[in-house]
Amino acid sequence: TSTVITIGTFDGVHIGHQKIIQQLVNASKEGHLQSCVLTFFPHPRMVLQKDANIKLINTIDERSQLLEKAGVDLLYIKTFNKEFSRMSAEDFVKQILVDVLHAKRVIIGYDHRFGRNRSADINDLRKYGEVYGFTVDEIPMQDVEDIAVSSTKIRKALLEGDLDTANSFLGQPFILTGRVTKGKQLGKTIGFPTANVYIEETYKLIPKHGAYIVRSNIGERIVYGMMNIGLNPTVNGDKESIEVHYFDFSQNLYGEKIQVEVLFRLRDEQQFDSIENLKQQLERDKVFS
């Protein structure tokens, strides 16, 4: 099937990206083409700059899920490695855009560079388009800048615990996805059974430590709860943990994969001098939320 393609990281699939995706989906309907996003994983900066500390808003699975939800027909995840980074611009166009993805139309940022040493630009892409039978639409400077600004603002807001700002730029709640593992079982003893959420992707950005209100879809139910991100100072915690306590919910979730939408922040993580005080604060949080 022939496609209309856009290329990018799309981390966060935020409002800046959603504008481009809307353009992509509209073009696919107009031209009776499949809408396709070509994205790279790992993030090019992780590979080329050995920037192991880069933190992404989404894991690759979350990104796939959000792009599908936004109406994209096809997601092509290209493994980004040194070898791929050395591919010439024409090989990239011919072998990937044309041979694999059957591009008829490509929507690309005005400043997009591709090929070995990022040597080719949108004008080169147009020339290749004439040879290989696809057209090129330019994403204007303003839209490209909006994407960069949104991404930076979202990351900064999450690290500061400012969910209002982060979620308004995301256009949807920030999500965390992980597997429920056995923790210290302390929650049970104070009447607040918690799910310890383990996120294996080390590149996933975790918001500022503190207590948050969250929502999850579990089975057919929408459940709300409180999440604590931090070191659990009251129970001598030494490593970062993410714990969720769902309200009015008692199902055993051990081993399950869960996703939480982080709605807003309640407070900073506090050290209480006793488990009893912690329990009282949890009760207050619960009432507040």
Describe it for me?
- The chain has 289 residues and is an alpha/beta fold.
- The protein folds into two domains: 3-159, HUPs (Rossmann fold, 3-Layer(aba) Sandwich), CATH 3.40.50.620; 174-288, Riboflavin kinase-like (Elongation Factor Tu (Ef-tu), domain 3), CATH 2.40.30.
- It contains ten helices and eleven strands.
- The protein has helices spanning 15-31, 44-48, 60-69, 82-85, 89-100, 122-132, 141-159, 163-170, 186-189, 275-288, and strands at 3-7, 34-41, 74-79, 103-109, 135-139, 174-181, 195-198, 210-218, 221-230, 241-246, 257-267.
- A six-stranded antiparallel β-barrel has the order 6-7-10-9-8-11. A five-stranded parallel sheet has the order 3-2-1-4-5, with helices on both faces.
- β8 and β9 (221-230) form a beta hairpin.
- α1 crosses α7.
- The model has no long low-confidence stretch (mean pLDDT 88).
Helix content: 25-40%
End-to-end span in angstroms? 49 Å
Q: Report the C-alpha radius of gyration, rounded.
A: 22 Å
Protein structure class: alpha/beta
DSSP, total strands: 11
Q: CATH superfamily assignment of the largest domain?
A: HUPs
Shape: elongated
Order of helices and strands: EHEHHEHHEHEHHEHEEEEEH
| Number of helical regions | 10
Strand order in the sheet with the most strands: 6-7-10-9-8-11
Instruction: Tell me the strand percentage band.
Output: 25-35%
* CATH domain class name of the largest domain: Alpha Beta
Would you give the CATH topology of the largest domain?
Rossmann fold
The CATH architecture of the largest domain is 3-Layer(aba) Sandwich
> How would a crystallographer describe the biggest sheet?
6 strands, antiparallel, barrel
